[in-house]
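Colleagues,

Please find the record for the four-part complex below.
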Amino acid sequence: MNLKEKLAGLNKKGSTLTIQRHAVLEYLYENRTHPTVEEIYHSLKEKFSTISKATVYNTLELLKNHGLIQEITIEKGKLRFDYEIKPHHHFFCHKCNRVYDVDVAGCPLAEKKMIDGHKIEELRPYIIGTCSKCLQKEEDGGIHS
Amino acid sequence: MNLKEKLAGLNKKGSTLTIQRHAVLEYLYENRTHPTVEEIYHSLKEKFSTISKATVYNTLELLKNHGLIQEITIEKGKLRFDYEIKPHHHFFCHKCNRVYDVDVAGCPLAEKKMIDGHKIEELRPYIIGTCSKCLQKEEDGGIHS
DNA sequence: TCTTGACTTAGAATCATTCTAATATTAGAT
DNA sequence: ATCTAATATTAGAATGATTCTAAGTCAAGA
């Protein structure tokens, strides 16, 4: 879904499209790095010097509840958000704390609505490890040590 | 792996098996409800009135690093832990905040060591939704309303 | 234009986690 | 058994993320 559609989606669902909400969604549209709330807030603060953290949190919660963005709980103690809502896996590098999108075909849960009598509403397939960049660094270090 | 094996495992890996560490691991062995740190601490506090939260956190971190327990980041803002380390999916009910174990056969990541050049060290397959108990409650409510 | 409800704001409050510095315990050497 | 150095535990302070609060602002419809 493109940015305009999502912005329009907000209105349709009975929520006002304020300048702050526009800014948050636009930020996520332009930054596909799975930013933390702090990163989003800090960046928006430069454009809108009076924007409040509460507004950022409220907006992210609203967008999430409208199904327009995705919440990521891959890293302990802090939230990240993703503009992309199509189901996909996330890879978290515990060395550099980056989050990567990865495509994994053939997930047996992809089409399931229920499991063990529980209603499935969202999948959060997370993978933890060391990313290619960090592996490369370790290798470079290894050669000279 | 049974409790004795895990307790012995600690020693083998060069860590002292203190009474506190024993208590934490035993608590997880006996409580397979994926308890939060607060729940673990609160319960142990009744037996060991002087146990410190720092010790609980340190011990959980140690056990996790020794590969004896599993950390769960399914719920925003707080950690949970699982005695069971065999790969399995977790289901989080956002109505009652319970975490369930679920078995999902045929995960295409099960045997993979690498993905997109990243080294896979741990899988955290999380599912969010409404659990059977909460679905039942909603239904009961619906009948009478 | 007025009113009402929705939205934003700054900062306080809360909650989870980590840090700190002092004390206690352990394992290994004597 | 005693000593010692390293390791572990403790209480409470500090930090960091998130939520709450109360006051002020804005927006859409009468």
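Residues 16, 18, 36-38, 53-54, 57, 77-79 of chain A lie near DNA strand D (CB under 10 Å from a C1').

Comments are welcome before we finalize the supplementary table.
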